[in-house]
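Hello again, I could really use a second opinion on something today. For a while now I've been wondering how a particular protein folds. Please have a think about how the structure follows from the sequence. Here's the protein in full, and shout if anything looks odd to you:

***
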Amino acid sequence: MSAIDRLVNNYTRQMRLPWSQNVSGKQCIWFAVYPPSEERRIRSRLPLFESLTLGAQHGWSTVDLTRLLPEYLAAHKYREAIFQNPKHLRAGSELENRAVELVKAACSRDEADADGVVAVTGLASLFDFMRVSTLIERVEDSVRGRMLIFFPGEYAGNIYRFMDARDGFNYMAVPITSTESFINP
């Protein structure tokens, strides 16, 4: 069985567990952790994740951050100068603010109620421009049901490492990994 198939199986198990409504924002966040090299396979399986969620009688909403950086650059008034000398790009806070707006908007949709899942994809496209931990901290209070973060990286010892490159961060989210029979209530 492939790593992605195990991740799907573990997500299915997590989805079937009862949801407590009395949890903090941090505990409403689920990280679907997979190797960065599997990004395209994860993308192709998003309809399966949606189907499994809907089959478990939960709502589904997605927010894809993949186009955020190119759209930001296309609209930037100094884009030509940035393209000529990319080291001058300082997208951090503006890009992060826009990502927060998009995720919060997804959290406010009707299908993102207390029984719904908001899936966040496209984080790999923002690597080196913003920190996932900061994004999560800024949106966690907007989550009414659960937020599923598709996280290209690794999880070990309560530490998440984004794209296997950054120093890890300790976060209280529920990890869903591709480890055999791994489940965390």
Q: What stands out?
A: Residues 59 and 110 are 9 Å apart (CA to CA). The beta strands are 29-34, 59-64, 116-121, 146-156, 159-162, 169-170, 174-176.
